[in-house]
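Please decode residue identities from the backbone states below.
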């Protein structure tokens, strides 16, 4: 929900600052992001999955947990390398020019030291904030 709100705010700011950016182009990505963010699994399917997991033997449970941890590590490695980002690269580039801390936040998907450095550099002077955001987005930092 938080990510959807930030993306909507960024797209709204973009539509104000860029005259050729139409509101029709704004509604398409926002609706798909909102639909993905609000979709929750059905409680009955969650309960049945938990019951199925509890019915497994101890060895099978350990195997499934090991596979799940392997998939999480793989996802984190892809996200860190920049292969799998939730935001389109061109949106990040435009936001890196207009709002560098927002671009860093959307790329990193969390508030960490890179986000705070980006805010500090943007407050001190705009150009270092933009440069730092580009370095983060392109994986140099």
């Amino acid at each position: 929900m938080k990510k959807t709100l930030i993306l909507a705010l960024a797209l709204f700011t973009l539509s104000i600052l860029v005259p050729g950016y139409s509101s029709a182009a704004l509604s398409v990505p926002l609706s798909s992001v909102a639909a993905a963010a609000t979709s929750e699994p059905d409680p009955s399917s969650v309960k049945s999955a938990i019951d199925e997991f509890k019915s497994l033997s101890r060895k099978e449970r350990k195997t499934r947990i090991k596979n799940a941890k392997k998939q999480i590590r793989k996802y984190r490695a892809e996200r860190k390398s920049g292969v799998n980002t939730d935001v389109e690269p061109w949106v990040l580039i435009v936001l890196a020019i207009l709002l560098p801390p927002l671009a860093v936040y959307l790329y990193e998907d969390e508030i960490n030291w890179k986000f705070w450095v980006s805010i500090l550099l943007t407050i001190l002077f705009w150009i270092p904030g933009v440069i730092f955001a580009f370095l983060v987005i392109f994986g140099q930092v």
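Observation: Helices lie at 2-17, 23-38, 43-55, 58-81, 89-98, 100-108, 113-124, 126-137.
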